[in-house]
Amino acid sequence: MRNPWAQTGNYRTSYRQDTSIFATHRELVSLLLFLGFLLVLPQFLSRTQVFILDLILVYSVAVLGLNITTGYAGLINIGQAAFMGVGAYTAALLAPQGLPFWLVIPLGGLVAAFFGFLVGIPSLRVKHLYLAMATLAFQVVFEWAVGHMPLLKQGGAMDMPRASFFGYEAGFRNHFHFWYYASLFTLVLLALFFRNLLRTRYGRALVAVRDNDRAADAMGMDPGRTKLFAFALGAFYAGVAGVLYAYLSRAVVIEDYVFAHSVKYLAMAIVGGLGTLVGSFLGPLFLVLLDVNMESLSNLIKALGFSVAGVDVASALRPLAFGLIIVLFLMFEPRGLYNWWRLVRSYFRTWPFKY
Amino acid sequence: MSFLLELLVSGVVLGLIYGLVALGFVLIYKASRVVNFAQGELLAMGAFSAHFFLVVLKLPVVLAFLLALGFTALVGYLLERVFLKRLVGQPIISVIMATIGLAFFLDGLLHLTPYGAGSYGYPTFLPEGGVAFLGARISYAQLLALFLTLAFLFLFSWFFQRSTLGVAMRSVADDQMAAMSLGVSVAKVFALAWAAAGLAAAAGGVMVGTISGLNFDGLVHIGLRVFPVVILGGLDSIPGAVVAGILIGVLENLAAGFLDPYIPGGGTRDVFPFLALLLVLWFKPHGLFGTEEIERV
Fold first, then answer.
1. Within 13 Å and on the Cβ side, how many CA atoms surround B161?
2. Residues 134-173 of B with CB under 8 A from A
3. Which H helix or E strand runs over A168?
4. What is the model's pTM?
5. Is B213 on the interface with A (CB under 8 A)?
6. Does any domain span residue B82?
7. pLDDT digits 0-9 by tens, A250-272
8. Complex prediction ipTM
9. C-alpha–C-alpha distance, residues B92 and B95, integer Å
10. What domains lie within chain A, and their CATH numbers?
């Protein structure tokens, strides 16, 4: 046996090794070190900066779910924000009843998963574009239904209580820090599940059905059930993200769960790299940072005095840059940021050799 | 009775406009299998550029509208040439995302002009009032839209039946490989389909603007309304787009007229087309006139 610490390159010789998550010890250690870094990071940051990190974590959860439905199973979902909204509104109804947040989070996910199951039913008959239409219709019907339910304040702001964890109150000062750790824990848990999904028969069935559902059928898989499973699971992730977002922003408003946000999550998944774990973090990271910098850029433009009467530069620059980034990524790097990550990683894995 | 008739008539007019906009969508889909999410933005571009030519440059009405059509067709052509040409053969999710991205891009461009916010209207060029038809009142704007849409539809069908370019486009839609081997430039046809889609969208936009004024969100919204229409009509059927357009237009007008008073908050107009979309997907996914896809392993 080679010394696993000094290993460079890929020496997998058995099936067991091939399905292992970490190829080398160095990878495992660097991941653990990175997690430790994430644990201490918020202590050195201001509240606003922690809030931005919170957003990235919560979006990552939603994008992970999207990577299951759209990335693994190939079912185009342009209604992820609506599933998030289902989770968020579940939280808005349950949390004021005094349920603890660690119970509300999975419950919100389950309710969203149920809706995901319902929306997935047309996938038994149709695929590709038609399915995208079904999720779009769900998004529109969701927005309309919330806007007409007095129970949900017709889409107006519903307050979320502050969370407490076995006597520890998350007050004004440490609200963002508290949700940083809660989101990080949830994200790590769900990411582990995501990573392991492909090592199970269910996960491999997803990919098989994506690549050719007839062939998968012939090999004994049930494409219909697999697709419904993918939809429900992706919606579960979205629901969890919705609950986290609701707690984080301390209110549930319909504007946070409209079509434009669904597009945003899809864009994050694509910019990160569709169907990849690392991409699910890189995509949100990239687009959230872009959004934050857009704000300062438009402020700069305003300060320099390049403004026409009646034009809001900020509201123009955002969609402009967002749309351009999506299209440019699709044109020049369709595999997303994950591909850059892969190149960097393989360089270090074989270091000091070229390959 | 006259209430119902009025709803029906304005529904048909609205539906014909939907049909026209959906026609552009179907053209692109038929030629290149690209799903165009930017149709609403093209429509807004057409409507606002007409406003620009009319109000800012003070051109005569007909000239301004024609220029707006030409301008939007050019925008559609350029979108294909610059962006979508490079995405041929990519998976469908990439193509969908690309047109969504382009929609946002155009959105941003429009927001850079004053047209991004607020409401605008064309200066009135039609006489007030309207004609009575079986007790229902039809405004001149609606009448004009009716005739213009029919004229456009007639023009398009002539183009596809008779002209060389139109036949080339149909051949590409039928079988790309065969068309290519017979000397049809597929790339040219793709770009042309986008130009035609821009033209159709702009025509729709100008008519919506004439009937009910210009507002960015309202115009872009019509772009999403295209989806129920094309799914109901069948994604690759041009007559389907027109028939389904009328059906959806009438449906949403009837819903708004008869159901809104009973539903607090109203807005049934916005949701009924999508409920119809869901029903169609459940029971007849390929729509009224769409070709059923037969898959082989």
1. 7
2. none
3. strand A168-169
4. 0.89
5. no
6. yes
7. 889 988 999 989 999 999 999 99
8. 0.86
9. 5
10. 47-350 (1.10.3470)
